Amino acid sequence: MVEGLAMKQKQKSQDGFSLIELMIAMTVTIVIAGIASSLLAQAFKLRAREDTRSDAVADAQRALNIVSREISNAGFGLVDNGIVPGDTNNGSIRFRANLNAYLRDSSGNPVPGFNAVVDKDEDVKYTMYNDDEANRHYLVRYDAILGAVDQRNGTTVLANRLDTFALQFLDVSGNTLDVVLNPDAVISARKVRITVGVVLPAQGSPGSAGYQPQSTINLVSDVVLRNTSQITY
User: pTM for the complete prediction?
Assistant: First the structure.
């Protein structure tokens, strides 16, 4: 009798999980795995979104800094603000500057080209080029002096992640000049407001984990033209 009881206890200790217990365990495991995968997918989408945002903003900021610095030279060494009417509007700007106007050699004599706009970086145009087929937008810098010799040598792609490039021209009183209705109004500009925009596409589908809707980031720079007094608006 003792031996029979011992055998029953040994057999009971060797029994596995029942079918119901296995099904419960599998269900719990599947639920946990589903939650974990959803959270992981959301994290990856957020990371991809932030990486795209960081790269785009860095590209836009770099381009904005270069454009702002160069436009601030417009009219330097000239008798006007340097902006070229007819080749400037709300989406592009051409400007001139005589950067060598006050340069002298070691003997105190003016350097060649001191009295004219003839050197590179003295006649520049910024505009957007839109490649609709590839859905790409490029901010292009064109140096008219270099381009007169070789157009390809005069053209530089400054940024390839921008979606918008907008210009606003302000007079001495801070009023916006309508350069579309009156292109010659740019000669009265004393300040240029530059806005570059980056569109971040949506990530995922509405209602899905980690979904991020489309958004736009705009960076703005106000540039006072160098040939004018520093005016507080």
Answer: 0.74
